[in-house]
Amino acid sequence: MDKPTHDAHRHIGRLPSYGFYGGPPISPDTTARATVKEFFADLDAERTERALVLPNYGVPDPDVAFELNKLALDAAQADDRVRCGLWVSPKASDSARNDKALGLAVEEGVVALKTSFLLGGSVDDPDSAEELHKVFTTAAEHDLVVHVHTSPGAASDVDQIGKLVERYGADARIHLVHLGGGMSGHLKLIGGRFFDWIERGLKVYTDTSWAIGFAPAWLCQEIERRGIGHDRVLFATDTPWGDHAGEYARLAAATDDPELIDALFRGNFEALYGA
């Protein structure tokens, strides 16, 4: 049986059906949980001792993810083994929604802000500049971690997201979700950029959810070879878009160093999100 773990990135809330890519309406988030009770039942079944929970998102209706901020906050305030992140948007059209969400940054249990360009906006888009600045400066002011989705190509590519690390990483802690999100992202991050940022003193972190099989083992080898980064990588499932069993098996097989294993699965979560 898997050992108890801390999950640094999972979601709560069910999304409405939507016709992705021009297809019929579908609901692919089959393990999404709509209630705090269901959410905690999953944690217990997985033996997940601590978790960071974020609103589920992915459909192009801005109110959906923003309204789930309350559910994520309810989960965090129901039990101190859970912390939460709040959904915020890079789009100027969501400015008022962002202001409302950022007003919750001082609430008990809030430790992160989550944003993504999957639903619009981009790092260099003038339309996104003010909202991004608002998000990152709020995070620095309140000592919150900014979670940013990464995936290959377009606005979520590491080439683009890396500009946020350069721009804000000296002052705000930035969690690059999905280790770059695919082959090109893995090669760019593990091949140098992740470690270069750490050496320069930038506050950058990542998790291995969605990672291609070779990447966690290579990442652990590079951590050992370079002697840095052991405190910057976290276990995460991205449930319901990932699964605990698969993510656990992949990362557990990446190294046989017991100290590094403990850091990846437990210690780094406690250091970043609170013991």
From TrEMBL:
* Domain Amidohydrolase-related, residue spans: 31-274
Q: Where are the transmembrane segments?
A: none
* Keywords on record: Hydrolase
GO MF entries? hydrolase activity
Gene3D superfamilies per UniProt: Metal-dependent hydrolases
Q: Which CDD domains match?
A: metallo-dependent_hydrolases
SUPFAM superfamilies found in the cross-reference section: Metallo-dependent hydrolases (SSF51556)
Q: Which Pfam families match?
A: Amidohydro_2
Record InterPro entries:
Amidohydro-rel (IPR006680), Metal_Hydrolase (IPR032466)
What this protein is called in its record is: Amidohydrolase
